[in-house]
Amino acid sequence: MPSQPQPTKAGIVVDESSGERQIPESVRPDGTKRKAIKIRPGYRPPEDVEVYKNRTAETFRTRGSGPVPGAEGLKNDKADQSSAANKNAKRREARKKAKAVGDNDDAAASTSEKASGAAQPQVEAVDEVAEKEKKVRNLKKKLRQAKDLKDKKDTGESLLPEQIAKVIKMNELIRELDALGFDAEGEPKASEAATTATEGSS
To answer: DSSP state, 7?
Structure first.
C-alpha cells in the first residue's frame, strides 16, 4: 500500500500519480463531505510561506540567553554598577565640598567688605542714582504721552477713558518730577543743574 504523502501546513497534498496539488476531501462534524479542492500550480498559501528570519535581529533577540562572542570582559556587571554608583557618590561629595568652600569664600569676602566699609555704600549710591534716572525717564515718557493726548483732546478728537485718565494724572506727574528735581518739561531745575555741574567738575 502506497504511503500517504504528508500534507503541508495548509493541508495541501501532492497527488503522486498526476502531480496535481489539492486539499483532499474531508468529513465535516455534521457528517457531510467536503469536496477535494484543486490548487493551481505555483500558488503558495500564506500558511506555507516561510517566515523571513533576519540573522542580525535573531541574534539581537537571543543575546541575553547565551554567551555573546567578545563579551568575556563583561562578566562582572554588578561590579560595574557599583563602580558607577561610587562615581556618582564621589561627584556628590565633590559638589558638597566645593559648595562649602564657596560659602566660606563668600563669608570671607563679606567680612573683608565690612572691614573696609567703603565698598558697600559706593555700590548702593550707584544703584540709587540709576534708580532715580530710570524713574525720571519713565515719568518723562508718561508726561509726554499725557501732553500728546491733551493736544488731541484740544483739537476735538474723542479719547478713550484710559486716555482721559492719563490726561488727568498730568499734574501728578509734574509734582513727582518736581520732587525729583526736574521741571514740568522734564529738564533738571537750575539749582539741580548747578549741583550736577559742580559734581561733574570735582
So the answer is: P
First-to-last alpha carbon distance for the chain, in angstroms, is: 129
The position carrying cell 555741574 is 197
Cα angle for residues 175, 176, 181 (degrees, 5° grid):
95
The rounded distance, in Å, linking the Cα atoms of 120 and 109 is: 12
Output the pLDDT for position 188.
76
- In angstroms, rounded to a whole number, what is the distance separating the alpha carbons of residues 194 and 187? 13
Cα distances (Å, whole numbers) of residue 134 to 5, 108, 121? 100, 34, 20
State pTM to two decimals: 0.34
125: three-class secondary structure by DSSP: helix
Residue 58 Ramachandran class (φ > 0 left, ψ -120 to 50 alpha, else beta): alpha
Whether the pLDDT of residue 52 is over 60: the answer is yes
